Amino acid sequence: MSKFEKAKERLRLKPKDYTYTEARSLLSQLGFVEYNKGKTSGSRVKFYRKEDQRIILLHKPHPDDVMKPGAVKDLLEFLMDLGELWVMEKNNTLQYKGYHTKIEFDSEEFVLRGKIEGINDLVNFECTHIKDVEKEFHKAVDDYLEFCKEVGKNPDKEYKGNFNVRISPKLHKKLAVISMQNGDSLNASVEKAIQAYVSEEHTSKAYLQKTITILSETLKTKSTYQFDKTSNGFNSKVIPFSVNRSVKMKYN
Hints:
The chain has three domains: 3-82, Hypothetical protein (Metal Transport, Frataxin, Chain A, 2-Layer Sandwich); 90-151, no CATH class; 169-211. The protein is an alpha+beta fold. A three-stranded antiparallel beta sheet has the order 1-2-3, with helices on one face. A three-stranded antiparallel beta sheet has the order 6-7-8, covered by helices on one side. It contains seven helices and ten strands. It is extended, with a radius of gyration of 29 Å. Helix 1 (3-12) packs across helix 2 (20-29) and helix 5 crosses helix 6 (186-198). It has helices spanning 3-12, 20-29, 69-82, 133-151, 169-182, 186-198, 204-218; strands at 33-35, 44-49, 54-59, 93-96, 99-102, 104-106, 111-115, 124-127, 225-226, 235-236. Mean pLDDT is 78; it is low at 221-231.
């Protein structure tokens, strides 16, 4: 692995000790020039790449050279969107120039396959060696973008926010009624439900607690049970019931 590839690999790993000096060196190898002309904005450093007119205004840490984790993440995502870096994500997925693919193994043909996900067009690729997966995926994306340019078509963007969902008429009706009661559109209600489902904070415990809260608010009753003075004199929402103390319980 060359020094250049090692430098890209280190950024991919997002180490806690990643330095501004490393970032500046990598950007230089990617064709970005540190721009020292004109006014500066405090500790913000300007980089410019003439070939595609890309601009980076990067915060330079001080007095230490180590960059903040958020700044490293921003730089990595920016270079990934440019197609300068790729990262093998969870579930065998790759990202390049804003497009994703999931790599699958065809056991009958003994080849690795993939396609650009989340677009209306079909762009697929395959290869026989794992080392060629990145190259073939990049080539597929680049060929797609070039062909779109050739025919005068705007390339599809991943997951534009429009998709068809089929649900039962009964569920559709319930959702429409709830949306109307809450003053929301049907789309807004669906978006809220999906956001809750995909949220990282949407754990089973949090969901259960939210459900209990909603049920508690819905089932509130004006009736309260007043304890006597020997019960510290506070109100309870517990509904009392009488117990026949003459009944004896048997336990096995």
